[in-house]
């Protein structure tokens, strides 16, 4: 890949398999999709409307925070040195390098959600989805995407948070990911095309209704 170095390191190590199967039999929800597809907006609304239902596994990243982002809420903003040390110490379930930034899902972040008894939600890149899927972990995989690359570009430009170079990298990455999805449709249990936010949100909630009912039944038991 020209301009993008994207690497996932994932292996079944001691404790990782336990994370995904010690969740009171409620599947974690793995969300994926290109930046600008609307997944963060959908997740934010779901967690606001159902604060006792969902817990977001906050990822680590070496990138700088955008306007409005809070450390420990949107990401754990981590120095490159700290991130590399965490990788060496096998603290991540998966990690990836996009451009010059590293992203990763730590075991600690997942454990933190599990301990609350809530449904764990993970936001992963496509390669992370494939890694977890190939390892036969029990999870529900949902892709959320914009209807077209043109619409995705329009949304990214409207955010005004990207340089032209980083925007083009994201678009290139999105195109490549969608080609993979077309060739590997089994990667996801549900694919949501976000051409209308209300419809996309309702579809997302429909996709996870079984997990919600399962958790609600335990709260009322």
UniProtKB/TrEMBL annotation:
GO cellular component, one term: cytosol
Keyword line: ATP-binding, Hydrolase, Kinase, Nucleotide-binding, Transferase
Ranges where the Guanylate kinase-like domain occurs: 26-209
Entry's Gene Ontology molecular function annotations: ATP binding; GMP kinase activity; hydrolase activity
EC number(s) stated in the UniProt entry for this protein: 2.7.4.8
GO term, biological process aspect, one: cell junction organization
PANTHER family associated with the record: GUANYLATE KINASE (PTHR23117:SF13), GUANYLATE KINASE-RELATED (PTHR23117)
Family: Belongs to the guanylate kinase family.
Protein name per Swiss-Prot or TrEMBL: guanylate kinase
Species whose genome carries this gene: Strongyloides ratti (Parasitic roundworm)
